[in-house]
């Protein structure tokens, strides 16, 4: 009986945050909430209906929470994957599902190589798989090949280096692994270039600083330890650390009480790499950091607050051509509320060094109310529900990624009856 | 013993810890979440704590993964007195035993056993937290847990993906030693190493002259048990090699590996042939 209750609460806390992705040339925007994938065409200002031959009739393409979405190959492809153990590859021209890949385990992260030839995905067992898109055809179901493994850890983020030479994987054991992406995929990726170590909690997100002049790209990572760090991937050296929660005034520099309240949930860098937008679990808005590529440093720029409503972003998407930052908050399901899935989209314009960022009013958002209706499912916003949603997302993330910590005294106390300890007293 | 306080867990005659106070289960689950401290980076490993009398510029070169009761470490300590080595053990009580054993040996033999130490850790998860890239010259995997069921093969300490991490911490030319009394596991470890592009087997002649090979079956408690029962052992000893597109230059006295990494820097490894 008790076990049943426990299992039920676990199911309740297993909610997924809402996700957003914007086409690199701003042709379209996609929001994923729970199993639903909602796409909007920004060129024709109309909702997109997704075409998926692998499911019949009105069935949704995904049967469980979507955990990862992204555009790739200069906007030609879009991938979605999640708890239903399937990865869908879509053509953004027709919004037709071109390929459905089955995974053995739930998928936690996806990445598309910059040449558009490979899709990588990570599962809940810590394995990274690769799908060769050259070998996929409509009638043959592609089989993924295992590439590398983080031993028994949940991989939280996957990223290809801009030059396609490395695949970067981050996990909940504070690690970032940089692996040479092999020429022959069938043999796996055995050559580790470096480990980026220094985070003191789970690593939640990765992003590259796309620096044209520098030969080595710089990697950014956000973590449950409330910091954003800058790395040199060739050596794994930590170049700089920005304690974003302290800088944003959320946390005293000496206080570590309730430290998991200010986990960094997402980050993205703008095209020139000068500004980095950071979402923090407790912040109603975003933090902007400036990144100096020549001195390889990160510094706090400003907090962009969102007034008038409870908006703690769960996912960020950069839209470089228009210097916009697209944000979503929401949750797959909310116990106690009538909403099956909850999402709210906001756009900040003027993400630039010289300009002042502005949070756009609903009617100023590209696509206007039509877009909001498509991506949010509704235009009305219930503030209390979003407050509860933010709490649910935070609790789910803690349950998934943070290990129980027992203080040293407790650990020693439990050993007190052991023969070797008892007799030494 | 120098101090008058008699430690009841230690033998009165030898001063060494007695095993009966450190009884532990034979196996430990490597998949469970761990609750012991892990160094944040290899630079955070406190050498002064492990090797109080050693030269502070030295780095650990040998790692005994799953060191058990520490028999191999103690034999290696006198065989390579100038080399720092560490044993890694997941079971808390067993690692406590090895710690006490080393401390007692240091007291009983002043100046000796200063180059060995032990740490409680899950080496399947935290190898990169303990060692830098190409830091180690030898890694030992002696009588690891066989995990017979196919479902549990991913718990084996030698597996295709974990070898990537071992290859990362081993220098080019570094050697990985494995031995087991379970034929099936012996075959498994050998085939994992054979199929890995960064390892090659040692030749018969090289095995003969390597002093560490002789210790594989004789030095550990587990090995002695197998020998007592006239059991068979299966060993696989492989060398970490550079990627195949890198050249190997060999002269008479030295084996020299000149490699370039993908960033164009040239590395030159010279290893004295014994």
UniProtKB/TrEMBL annotation, chain A:
Subcellular location: Nucleus
Repeat is among the record's keywords: yes
Database matches in Pfam families: WD40
Record-level GO cellular component terms: cytosol; nucleus; tRNA methyltransferase complex
Biological processes per GO annotation: tRNA (guanine-N7)-methylation
WD repeats: 59-100, 196-241
Residue ranges of the TM segments: none
Domain of life according to the entry: Eukaryota
Main location per the UniProt record: nucleus
Pathways per UniProt: tRNA modification; N(7)-methylguanine-tRNA biosynthesis
Keywords from the named record: Nucleus, Repeat, tRNA processing, WD repeat
Keyword DNA-binding: no
Subunit structure: Forms a heterodimer with the catalytic subunit.
Its biological purpose: Required for the formation of N(7)-methylguanine at position 46 (m7G46) in tRNA. In the complex, it is required to stabilize and induce conformational changes of the catalytic subunit.
PANTHER family: TRNA (GUANINE-N(7)-)-METHYLTRANSFERASE NON-CATALYTIC SUBUNIT WDR4 (PTHR16288:SF0), WD40 REPEAT PROTEIN 4 (PTHR16288)
Family: Belongs to the WD repeat TRM82 family.
Record-given protein name: tRNA (guanine-N(7)-)-methyltransferase non-catalytic subunit
From TrEMBL, chain B:
Subcellular location: Nucleus
GO molecular function annotations of the record: tRNA (guanine(46)-N7)-methyltransferase activity; tRNA binding
Entry-linked SUPFAM superfamilies: S-adenosyl-L-methionine-dependent methyltransferases (SSF53335)
Gene3D superfamilies: Vaccinia Virus protein VP39 (3.40.50.150)
InterPro entries: SAM-dependent_MTases_sf, Trm8_euk, tRNA_(Gua-N-7)_MeTrfase_Trmb
Catalysis: reaction(s): guanosine(46) in tRNA + S-adenosyl-L-methionine = N(7)-methylguanosine(46) in tRNA + S-adenosyl-L-homocysteine
Residues bound to S-adenosyl-L-methionine: 66, 89-90, 122-123, 142, 220-222
Pathway: tRNA modification; N(7)-methylguanine-tRNA biosynthesis
Class of the enzyme per the UniProt entry, highest EC level: transferase
Active site residues of this protein: 145
E.C. code: 2.1.1.33
Domain of life: Eukaryota
Keywords (A to Z) from UniProt: Methyltransferase, Nucleus, RNA-binding, S-adenosyl-L-methionine, Transferase, tRNA processing, tRNA-binding
Cellular component GO terms, alphabetical: nucleus; tRNA methyltransferase complex
Function: Catalyzes the formation of N(7)-methylguanine at position 46 (m7G46) in tRNA.
Listed PANTHER family: 3-DEOXY-D-MANNO-OCTULOSONIC-ACID TRANSFERASE/TRNA GUANINE-N 7 - -METHYLTRANSFERASE, TRNA (GUANINE-N(7)-)-METHYLTRANSFERASE
Family as reported in the entry's similarity comment: Belongs to the class I-like SAM-binding methyltransferase superfamily. TrmB family.
Xref: NCBIfam families: tRNA (guanosine(46)-N7)-methyltransferase TrmB
Protein name: tRNA (guanine-N(7)-)-methyltransferase
Organism classification: Eukaryota, Viridiplantae, Streptophyta, Embryophyta, Tracheophyta
């Amino acid at each position: 009986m008790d076990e049943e209750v426990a299992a039920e609460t676990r199911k309740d806390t297993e909610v997924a945050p809402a996700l957003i992705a914007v086409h690199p040339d701003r042709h379209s925007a996609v929001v994923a909430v729970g199993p639903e994938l909602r796409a909007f065409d920004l060129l024709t200002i109309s909702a997109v209906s997704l075409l998926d031959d692998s499911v019949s009739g009105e069935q949704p393409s995904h049967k469980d929470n979507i955990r990862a979405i992204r555009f790739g190959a200069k906007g030609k492809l879009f991938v979605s994957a999640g708890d239903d153990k399937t990865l869908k590859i879509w053509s953004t021209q027709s919004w037709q599902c071109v390929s459905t890949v089955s995974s053995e385990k739930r998928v936690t992260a996806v990445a598309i190589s910059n040449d558009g030839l490979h899709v990588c995905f990570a599962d809940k067992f810590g394995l990274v798989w690769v799908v060769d898109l050259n070998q996929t055809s409509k009638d043959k179901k592609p089989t993924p090949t295992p590439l590398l493994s983080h031993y028994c850890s949940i991989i939280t983020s996957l990223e290809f280096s801009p030059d396609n030479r490395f695949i970067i994987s981050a996990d909940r054991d504070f690690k970032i692994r940089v692996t040479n992406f092999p020429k022959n995929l069938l043999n796996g990726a055995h050559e580790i270039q470096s480990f980026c170590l220094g985070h003191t909690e789970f690593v939640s997100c990765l992003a590259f600083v796309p620096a044209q002049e520098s030969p080595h790209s710089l990697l950014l990572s956000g973590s449950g330890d409330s910091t954003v760090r800058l790395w040199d991937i060739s050596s794994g050296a930590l170049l700089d650390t920005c304690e974003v929660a302290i800088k944003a005034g959320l946390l005293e520099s000496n206080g570590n009480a309730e430290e998991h309240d200010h986990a960094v949930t997402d980050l993205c860098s703008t095209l020139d790499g000068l500004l980095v937008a950071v979402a923090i679990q407790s912040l109603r808005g975003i933090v902007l950091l400036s990144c100096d590529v020549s001195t390889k440093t990160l510094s706090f720029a400003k907090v962009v607050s969102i007034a008038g409503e409870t908006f703690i972003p769960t996912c960020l998407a950069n839209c470089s051509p228009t210097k916009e930052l697209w944000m979503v908050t929401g949750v797959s399901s909310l116990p106690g509320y009538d909403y099956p899935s909850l999402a709210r989209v906001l756009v900040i314009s003027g993400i630039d060094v010289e300009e002042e960022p502005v949070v756009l009013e609903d009617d100023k958002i590209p696509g206007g109310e039509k877009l909001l209706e498509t991506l949010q499912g509704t235009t009305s916003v219930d503030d209390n529900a979003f407050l509860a949603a933010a709490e649910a997302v935070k609790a789910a993330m803690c349950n998934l990624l943070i290990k129980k910590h027992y203080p040293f005294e407790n650990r020693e106390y439990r050993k007190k009856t052991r023969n070797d300890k008892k007799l030494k007293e | 013993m120098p101090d008058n306080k008699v430690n009841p867990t230690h033998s009165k005659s030898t001063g060494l810890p007695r095993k009966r106070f450190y009884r532990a289960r034979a196996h430990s689950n490597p998949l469970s979440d761990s609750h012991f401290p892990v160094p944040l980076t290899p630079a955070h490993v406190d050498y002064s704590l492990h090797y109080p009398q050693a030269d502070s510029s030295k780095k650990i070169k040998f790692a005994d993964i799953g060191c058990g009761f520490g028999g191999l470490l103690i034999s290696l300590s006198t065989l390579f007195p100038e080399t720092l080595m560490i044993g890694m053990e997941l079971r808390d009580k067993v690692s406590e035993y090895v710690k006490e054993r080393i401390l007692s040996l240091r007291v009983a033999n002043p100046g000796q056993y200063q180059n060995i130490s032990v740490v409680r850790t899950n080496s399947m998860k935290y190898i990169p937290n303990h060692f830098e890239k190409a830091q180690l010259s030898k890694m030992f995997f002696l009588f690891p847990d066989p995990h017979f069921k196919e479902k549990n093969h991913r718990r084996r300490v030698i597996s295709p993906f974990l070898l990537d991490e071992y290859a990362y911490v081993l220098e080019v030319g570094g050697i990985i030693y494995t031995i087991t009394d379970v034929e099936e596991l012996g075959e498994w470890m050998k085939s994992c190493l054979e199929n890995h592009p960064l390892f090659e087997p040692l030749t018969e002649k090289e095995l003969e002259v390597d002093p560490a090979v002789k210790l594989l079956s004789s030095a550990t408690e587990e090995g002695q048990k197998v020998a007592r029962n006239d059991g068979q052992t299966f060993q696989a000893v492989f060398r970490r090699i550079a990627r195949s597109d890198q050249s190997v230059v060999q002269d008479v006295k030295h084996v020299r590996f000149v490699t370039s990494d993908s960033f164009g820097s040239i590395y030159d490894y010279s290893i004295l042939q014994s």
